[in-house]
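Q: For a teaching handout, I want to show students what a protein-ligand complex looks like in token form. Below are the inputs, and the small molecule is GMT. Please produce the holo structure.
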Amino acid sequence: MKIAIVCYPTFGGSGVVATELGLELAQRGHEIHFITYKQPVRLALLNPNLHYHEVNVPEYPLFHYQPYELALSSKLVDMVKLHKIELLHVHYAIPHAYAGYMAKQMLKAEGIYIPMVTTLHGTDITLVGKHPFYKSAVTFSINQSDVVTSVSQSLKDDTYKHFAITKEIEVIPNFIEINKAKVEEGTPCYRSLMAKNDERIITHISNFRKVKRIPDVIKIFYKIQQQIPAKLMMVGEGPEKENAELLCEELGISNKVIFFGNSNEIDKILCFTDLFLLPSETESFGLAALEAMACSVPVISTNTGGLPEVNKDGFSGYLSNVGAIDAMAENALKIIQDDVTLSTFKKNAFAVAQQFDIINILPLYEAVYEKAIKNQFNSISS
Ligand code: GMT
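A: Here is the structure, written as tokens, with GMT included.
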């Protein structure tokens, strides 16, 4: 099948999921066209089935806001015609589902019918999408999609709760390529560069936005390092990073915290990690937690949104209420206090991650594509 994938190219869950999905579909023989404003960070184009088309938005002094949706829908129309693309898969409703709908209409006017699958990722519903300024357009474009998927049951429930959705939403959980993530025994791991032998290594990876509750990460770590020797690896970039550095200084733990910035090699960091912290305010799924678990790293997280669908309380890690810093620090210590307990949690984390292997999830997307083509065909003939 010839598929156009529209996504955000930056570091962030939805872009990562869209890119990894496209890479795997290309491996399976589908022809994949990524259409976005910059080459996605995880996209290596070493496969003849993979293509990347950049959306350019020419600047004009009249525009206070550059009309990206317009340029994207135009690009979609041009690429569909040029490459005989059969299906649009848009990731993140804003503004991709809206631009996809416009492209569909423009193509329809020329007698070309193309189905659209919209995948909802989280903040496009829970934070940004439900804002009154966007709500009508988001509701409309979700309802106009031929098939809608969400990355967790929790996000599906939130979507029905906040929007007047008439479409059925299918849950397709996020995934991981387990063979790529698996840390083989004997693989060189540069742990000794980062910490002393007796220190536990705790890691947090995110886009450092408010929703991730970065101060909680630091405070949980502060409590942990009061009890046992430990180091904290902070991976990512975002608006909360500077304050996080200041907080570490204030607490006198700057020498125990390493800020890495964005990384394309999180597996190398996770390979020497003992515990992952994700105390988010909300998380539709928590892909970073799954990536950690796939590297056999247990997770201390909050219990909001889709996190309980990924992190299993008392098995792959522990879940607590948002802001329950003491409970999260206590649970962290329970896991890392001795090697035997840590090793059990590590095995469990990997076992749960295996259920989300791409091998299990990809056929669900292929089935959805077939369904979208059928839905589209039915709506033309009725
Ligand atoms: O906030 C982020 O982490 C970025 C955001 C995105 O769309 O790039 O992530 C959302 O989508 C991810 C992939 O489906 C989910 O794993 C994240 O949980 C979700 N973030 C939130 O819901 C806050």
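A: Two things your students might notice: The chain has 16 helices and 13 strands. The radius of gyration is 22 Å.
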